[in-house]
Amino acid sequence: MAKKKSIKVNSENVDFDLEKDGVNVNANLDTKNLDVSYVKNEVDKQFKLDGKNLDIDIKKTKDGLDIKVDTSNWLWKIISKKVIRFILRKIIKRK
């Protein structure tokens, strides 16, 4: 039986929560300009990045991979394309 582990850091500028129970992982990072969330369970994985100029939502399920990117200007569009390419390479290598 796996032990449940939990880490919490709350300060003036950063809030971080990490919970791990066997293969299930739930991590949240909240700052003034950036919110990051990662959820992994036995069936699927989910990653969300909500920033001032960039929002990324990635969901990996048994059915496939769903990536959504919202940006505010052309520079962030270029950066998001690089991030998506990097993520897809890592996922394809693991298959």
Describe the structure.
The protein is an alpha+beta fold. The chain has one domain (4-94). It is built from one helix and seven strands. The protein has a seven-stranded antiparallel β-sheet with strand order 1-2-3-4-5-6-7, with helices on one face.
Q: Give the overall average pLDDT.
A: 85
How many strand elements? 7
The percent range for helix content is 10-25%
Overall outline? flat
Topology:
Elements: E1 4-10, E2 15-21, E3 24-30, E4 34-40, E5 45-51, E6 54-60, E7 65-71, H1 74-94
Antiparallel strand pairs: 1-2, 2-3, 3-4, 4-5, 5-6, 6-7
Observed structural traits:
95 residues; alpha+beta; seven-stranded antiparallel beta sheet; 1 helix; 52% strand
TL;DR of this structure?
This protein is α+β, with helices and mostly antiparallel strands and 95 residues long. The protein has one helix and seven strands, in the order βββββββα.
